[in-house]
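Work package 3, deliverable 3.1, input record:
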Amino acid sequence: MKPLLIRGGRVVDPSQGIDAVRDLLVRDGIIAALDEHQAVDGADVFDATGTIVAPGFIDMHVHLREPGQTHKETIASGSAAAVAGGFTAVACMPNTEPALDSPALIAEVLRLAHEAGLARIYPVGAITRGRQGKELAPYWRLRDAGAVAFSDDGATIASARVLRQAALYARDVPGVFISHCEDDDLKALGVMNEGVHSMQLGLAGSPGLAEDIVVARDLLIAGETGKPFHIAHLSTAMSIELMKFARAQGFAVTCEVTPHHLLLGDDRFERFRADAKVNPPLRAELDAAALRAAVRDGAIDAFATDHAPHTREEKAQLLSEAPTGFSGLEVALGAYARALPDLPLARFVELLSCNPARILGVPGGSLRAGSPADITIFADREWTCDPSRFRSLGKNTPFAGVTFPRKALATLVGGRIVMQGAG
Amino acid sequence: MPERSLLDLDDLSSDDIIYILDRATRFHVAPPERNLLRDICVVNLFFEASTRTFTSFAIAEQRVGADIVALPPGSSSLGKGETIADTAITLAAMGVRVIVTRHPESGFPYRLAESFDGHVINAGDGRHAHPTQALLDLLTLATEFGRVAGLKVALVGDILHSRVARSNVIGLRRLGAEVILVGPQTLLPDAMAREGVRIERDLDAILPEVDALMLLRIQRERIASAVLPSLDDYARNYRLDAPRLAKLQPHAIVMHPGPYNRGIELTEEVFASSGWRYVQQVSHGVYVRMAVLDFLVNGRSA
């Protein structure tokens, strides 16, 4: 492969404290040099003038639906969606059918990811067998097969005893525990946030307390067992306070926030459509404002989309029947920028690249010479979300028709341009 | 563009509401010619058991001369994989112009109306809305007092789970009544407070000031679901009995959407009291539903 010179872009790499116009040389899939002006004979040149060049973005929370639900998404279509959205890597959740609770299934995901040949795919193994919350999954074997983290995402492990044992057993296994925090009993049949809007619509609501209680429990289990925990998709103001408390205790805990919880409130159900139905539910505007403040003040470690594709037919069902979630990979950059227009770029890149790489313990998150050449090139350009153009098979999003201020222009994985000039 | 539907009372302006109440009053005085809805096919699509509302609609439809098809619950192919949109398109293709529907899930008629080329009338959806019940309640108030504006109306009991309460709050406020909601926190969460709606916990305290009480049905399931400790504990604070009746102003009336639980939300003395208006409510239901059918299909006549 010929060397590639990415010339004239504004390189933002918080891992090295760089924010300056630089030329970036990629050779053999590796970052070879990062200098002011480079001229390399025989290199292809990528003109990055007027754009931002950052270490590749990593979405640590996506659902790729394979095996078992390939009508919603496949690893191939999900990979295409990832690179179209500017992501060089994604961590895929184990709520497939069957659940990713055996080494063979992890290996199968990696085989399909290799076949797709676009983004790096990091499988997340289940914490309990079949995600049933009862028996422990084989953490060492899952890790050997390539799992980078563990989660029963989509399901909260109801038993504190089971989760505690899991955390103790897995303490020395590399791979953070990722917690989906919703108390099923408190949530009951809730299809949206419990609050003024659910009361007016006569819809069963799930209170913020259903999240807070489990966040508190899981953070305490993290502290007591010493196993690092990552709290997925925080949605309430109280969860942030609990995170701050846990950090102050010195617990090894991190957390993420989604674009939809940053941008949208629970006033999206007026005509009873399920487009905005998601777990945890969209909360009150006060919660969304608290999440945005938490991103600014550093209480949030990572941006993650919770990309959860479904078919149009599935999402057209009644609110009680429609599945939760929607596609996120292809709107994420724009949505984060829209939610936090004043966020410094270095912090933006930290949340999307450096921190997810560190939390998952995977390569990336840096443009330091010798790192894999996983690079996201983006710019502040306006565009309007048109879900019919998604590469994801899931065309559902509560952001249809919304204008975003930022978009990915090119995605490089291992030095290879896997997306350029996506529409 | 879908045709005009009645999904909740906020689909109607206060003028529309007054027009419908006025038409209903006229139908009450003198039956209309039977041909107001001649050759209009109306389907009653009920997914939840209903005697009162179903019968009331059926009679109203007959009185305005519609062609009526009733699909008994369970007969629809919804639930056999057919989507709501498929059902709507199928019925429209057969020439159905009006669907009257009741469904256990809040929002069902909205999703149906989205795909139906015709009029949808919500006969009750989940906990959400029951607009024709609210209209008949408004008609009962208007008939009694000659106006709704300025009346002080208290709704008592299980507000959270009540579609009757939600629609009534909209209608009462639209016509300028003062609304008081009364009940314990688990049946009337603080989050139900909104502009122009007072929340009270103490029924005894507000009895002397109201012009009308709307009692709501208390369901025994609320005990199993840990929402109420016992019917007796509820009755201590909220059952309308003789001592509480005595606290009402002489002109005050008592309403109930039915079916009522004797001894739970009210005692036998209420039935014998001069303010009990349940029978009038049921009777008004037919006229209001006739007026709604006429209004949606034919618009406002001169």
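Chain B touches chain A through 22 residues (CB under 8 Å).
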